[in-house]
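Known limitations

Files may contain more than one protein. Parsers should not assume a single record per file. Below, a two-record file is shown to illustrate correct handling: read the sequence, read the token line, then continue until end of file.
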Amino acid sequence: MSFLDSLRVAFKGGAGRRVPLARSFVSPWTWAFEPAGTRAPFEYRTGVARAFLENPVAQRAVRLVAEGVGGAPLLPSDEAALALVSATSAGQSLLETLAAQLLLHGNGYVQVVRDGSGAPIELFALRPERVSVIAGADGWPASYQYKVGDKTLSLGAEDEDGWPQLIHLKAFHPADDHYGAGCLAAADQAVAIHNAASGWNRALLENAARPSGALMMEAGDGGGLTTDQFDRLKAELQGAYSGAGNAGRPMLLEGGLRWQALSLTPADMDFAELKAAAARDIALAFGVPPMLLGLPGDNTYANYREANRALWRLTLLPLAGKILSGLQEGLRPWFPKLTLAVDLDRVPALAEDRERLWAQLTAADFLSAEEKRTLLGMGDAK
């Protein structure tokens, strides 16, 4: 802040100024200089490939939440605005895409595409890993940079007329002013454990569901194998006795060699419980009741109906409310009276809750009809 700006703030009070956002720079290579045992920082593209594309539990959890938000019924509102929100974005549901991006990345960016008259005609969800926040002198976002390949596009938060060009939705991040924290980063270790357990089980099955053994040299004249004999024996074992196709094949030994089979300890065989625990951690990170993912040992809810209701109350409705409120705020310049919200009366999983509320209000004789309609969110009667 210059000396003149300081004087101006001193005389005018400066009550309308925003506090500066100071983001300290942290090198992505900091982990390389730390003591052994630390792990590399989370990398989004690798995490998506490992979780959503390779792990069935993580993919099902994300799809369950994203498709639930995308298919949630909305309250009646401005038809043009509802058409924008309900339309597909590059062949995919806009709300479903934004829900998946917030879960995986923690950020959602919506470009407001307008026609020649300035009216919005499309809401396009940008890939969040391709968008960078460009901060101004005070640290607040001044523009956004979209980069794909060698092409870079700069999008201002607002155009020269003050109309928004991009809507930024983000999950809460306690240590970052510009970017949100996704659930995938928290589930990354559980996904790695689950994938490693699956890989180990597959390798064990390919070896006839038993561990390898050891070739023992019988004590004779005290001589061992020469280097050539050892290399030839190793090559024969790998080529003729390794893999699922050679499982159970008899081995012909000579020259004082004896095969000693090895066994797994009970702790080594406890991969099923390890895999189930990792799957429960994945479901916990994405806010999905484990019962809905078919995980054993997690019958916390009495039935699927209660688990489905908990999914809507604790995960789907808060996430849908965050997305809809962000879109509502971004579209307010064109639709001043716009209200975007989920129609709770049309959600099948919440039918019992709404029925109980209707019964309680019906029995409340001290309330007028207008007050009951207001409590139900139906507004005044026309």
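...continuing to the second record:
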Amino acid sequence: MSAPVLAAGLVDAANEAALPALQEDYDALGLQLARRSIELERVTEAAGRFSVALPSWGVGSGGTRFARFPGAGEPRDIFDKLADCAVVHRLTAMTPRVSPHFPWDAPGDPAELRAYAERLGLGFDAVNSNTFQDSPGQALSYKFGSLSHTDPAVRAQAIAHNLECIRLGESIGAKALTVWIGDGANFPGQQSLARVFERYLESVAEIYAALPPDWRLLLEYKLYEPAFYATVVQDWGSALLAAQATGPRAAVLVDLGHHAPGTNIEQVVARLIHAGRLGGFHLNDSKYGDDDLDAGAIAPYRLFLIFNELVDAERRNRLPTAPAYMLDQSHNVTDPIESLLLSASEAARAYVQACLVDRAALDAAQGANDALLATQILKRAFTTDVGPILAMARYRGGGAIDPLAAYRASGYRAMCASGRPVRAASGGGIV
């Protein structure tokens, strides 16, 4: 079991050197925003309240469909993963929760794991089940499906795994279960498109019945892969149908990479808000498909537009339950911790930019059908450099003004590399 190692005083010393310049930039931005009747401190306080969960699997190197290239100092177990996540939170002050994946992260002693997380200042977000691959010692295979399999025994095994995830989640203090399945078909006629969805709904209903009363069930969808002809839960519509058929505490989880090219994801978000079934997000970015790139790396304006819908929904009291935000990325050519540091900042950046939108002016422009003015109002908020707000919020929250610089100065990766053996490459796969 390891603990995070950042030299005592490292962050404070770096902040002391950077604070004068930050204060100048912050004050200058405050003057600019005041001319737009925006209160700088109100926005900074909102930034300080924003948080996003880290994926336990995100602190290790991912892989491509063809190969995986291990990185130096990768975590060996869930305790190492928590140590790395604690470093991210120490530097960003906005990632206080970790989302574990079972059975990958199944602890021998859940009480020990929970106590360790608490010592690191971390809690647990939604737990994730895994019936999209076979695990060692598993009696029946998921090659042809799990919760929707034709064989009742396979479905029962997959349901039992999800119930075990709930049990483990309760023991570590989680409050939600995320379910994603890789079930589907690669050939026309391989499955009954109607009956396979019905079997999925029946299985999900059994899982939902076992949820503790204060838990939520988050249903994730994916357009394709590994099912390339027909995925059982292939889009937000299918996930919404499943959530509505299951119960009031079932909601849809939106992964930004799980859409057909050109899909208007912000409109999907608006529809799920209207239906009262927006459960949360897996934040990442993509160019072609389910690329799992760092958040904001490709389409930062799209990320802003998504948060624009969310901030507007908050204003109109249309979000009775706050969405769960989590990063979900595959880091193949970067230090995973560095990518998570920047992705957390990009998620917060999009949120803060959305807080700068002049809602009254936008409402008026939309009401007058003034398309050009309406889009310029959004662009003005998006093009505002909110970096000083984010840095000040981190500083006030005990984080680093410049997380990446502080991390690189810490030598943390080298320390991990000296104490953790390189993981052997075990073939392809994103995780």
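Parsers that stop after the first record will miss the second one. For reference, the second record is described as follows. The chain is about 45% helix and 10% strand.
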